[in-house]
Each structure stands twice: as C-alpha cells, then as structure tokens.
Amino acid sequence: MRATVNGRHISGAERIAPSEKIDSIAQELIARALRKMNTPEHIMLHIESLRDKPLRSLAALDVVTVNAQDVLAGRSAASRVLGSTGVSMQAVETAIRLLSQGPAPSGGNMRGAIIMDSRTGERLEPDQERGVRVSRFDWSEAALGAIDKKLAEIGLKHFRTREALALATKVVYASGMVAELCWSDEPDYTAGYVASRERGYVRFPMLKQIGDPRGGRVFFVRNDGLNVAALVHYLQNEAVLIDKVGKCCAAIELEAYFNG
Ligand code: AMP
After folding, report:
1. Residue 124 needs a FRET pair 20 to 30 A away by CA distance; which of 56, 87, 88, 99 works?
2. What is the pTM of this model?
C-alpha cells in the first residue's frame, strides 16, 4: 500500500500472505492509510501473486535497545556501532549529515534509501531523489505472533519496530551489505537503529530531536565488485519471509553495551 498527498508519500506498508487473507489485509492497509493525520489524495494498493517465485526464509536479527541520554550521545553511539561493523568514519559522518539535512538532492526526505560505499561515503543508488525502496518482505503468521510478544516484553509495542526489524533483516542479508542506519521522518518518532549481521538490530531511543521532520535510511555496502543492479533487484523484488524470531534484550546503558 502506498498513500500520497500532492504527490508526496505519506504512508506505505508491505505484506506477504496466503490468498485467502487478501480481503482482510486490503481493508487493514486502507484503514492504515486513512489513519494518517493528512487525509490521502491517492491510495494505491498493488497485489501480486508470488506463486512460482522463490521465497527466501530468514531468521530475524536479535534486538537490543541501547540507552543514550540525548541525540548527540545517541548518534555518537550509533557511529561507534557502525564503526565496529567496518563502516569508515568518513562514511558514517556523510550519512549522519545527509539524514539530518534531508537526504534528497532537493533537500527533502527520500521515499527510499541511500546506498553508500562503506569506505568512501560515495552514494551509489541510481536515483538520489527517490532512493531504493525495499519491498516484498513480511513475517510468517507464527513469527508475527512470536515477535509481537517478545518485543512487548521489552516494552516495544509500536508496530514500527516490528516492521523496521523485518526490513532491516532483509537488508542485512543482501550480498555486499555491511550495515544499515535509520531514523524515522515522523516528527514525533525519535528512535532509530543500526542493523548488521554481527551486531543485530541495535535500537537507540533518540537519534533526532522531537518535532524534526527529517529522516531516512542508509545502506552501507562493500563496493569492491558490487553489482548495484543485482543489489537493487534483491531489495525491491526478491520475496523474503521472516519465519524465526531472534533474542530481544531489555534496554542497557551505553557503557554496558560496549564493555559487556
Ligand atoms: P519511516 O521509518 O517509515 O519513517 O521511514 C524513514 C525513512 O526511511 C523514509 O523517509 C525513507 O527515506 C526510508 N524508507 C521508508 N520505507 C522504506 C523502504 N521500504 N525501503 C527503503 N527505505 C525506506
């Protein structure tokens, strides 16, 4: 589902489900588009059969929340985690600068993500205004129930966390992927995360100030012999079903996370 006002993206969501669920999921997604503060002008619902197409199964990344007292401490901790996965400080600084300014060349948010060389900070996505939109991923029904329960046990009840965790799991298992950095463009949602295969999904409650409407996603890649077209194809088109959940750990303090 994708909803827009004046051509501007305001809401979107992805599902993979058995065909008998199409009716109820369509209703759910339309209701979600209409719940937005801005009434949508267009709601697009695209339904596609995945029959005969390969479906890759993945286990969700482990989740941990790292408490940092403010935005500066949060961004510095996120940088440290990215550095530990092999992203250069030059790339980290470029990514943070872009997300804080509005990463589209026109100065606004992008609909999709930046693909960035993890060494040089060079942008590699074919369309810098739009970015690359990850699509065709979802939880299996059993894993969805299990992850909602586990996330609720550590106080994470917002559907955004579950959706971002699914997206990040698909992203980090792309060939050539090193890590992802994300914070939301919703003005009242300040949390963000760094995801990688080694460290899992590391969530920070405050990666931007409340009220700030800028956000985005950066996918850091190893650019030696990377086939960008194949990467974009995997992210946009190949179907991934997350059918196992990982560990979800209670929030810990910054120093405990790095020293523990
Ligand atoms: P959100 O977490 O939904 O507020 O999204 C934050 C930012 O991440 C958006 O401004 C987009 O730049 C990017 N984004 C959102 N959804 C996707 C997606 N499916 N694939 C790639 N990037 C996305």
Report:
1. 56
2. 0.95
